[in-house]
Amino acid sequence: MMNLVASISCDKAVWDAILNNRAVQDLGGSISAEQRTQASSEQADIASLIFKWILEFTISKIMDVVEKIGLMMAELFIPGDKEKPTSELTDLVEEKIRSSLLLSVVILLIVVVTRNSGA
């Protein structure tokens, strides 16, 4: 029953028929213009509130992602205290891996920025 009502209420032809009905028009005429403008401004306010909520939610998620990427980069590129002494060769290999990873991240950022500015 609910599906039937929902499907009928979503039909444009049904709404047009209801709005063209004489009794509905008489009822609509009794509502003052002031109430109509108030209702439309409330709808605009609701729409702007929803838009602001979506924007704030998106910004907070983007900030979370940026913070997580920053923490990950800090772990990769800032060497921490090592518990075991390592050989000079291992240190050299780790430094080369960090350098190449940083270089690939920078190149990836350049490519993304270039494609976005060209699009």
Strand content: under 5%
Secondary structure: helix percent = over 70%
Main sheet? Answer: none
Q: Which residues form runs of ≥5 with pLDDT under 50?
A: none
Order of helices and strands: HHHHH
- Helix-strand category: mainly alpha
How many H/I helices?
Answer: 5
N-to-C CA distance: 49 Å
Q: Roughly how many Å is the radius of gyration?
A: 30 Å
Tell me briefly what this model is.
The protein is mostly helical and 119 residues long. It is 86% helix and 0% strand. The chain is built from 5 helices and no strands.
What would you say this structure looks like, in words?
This protein has 119 residues and is mainly α. The protein has a domain at 87-119. The chain is 86% helix and 0% strand. The protein is built from 5 helices and no strands. The longest helix is centred in the middle third of the chain and has 45 residues, at 33-77. The radius of gyration is 30 Å and the shape is rod-shaped. The chain starts with a helix and ends with a helix. The mean pLDDT is 76.
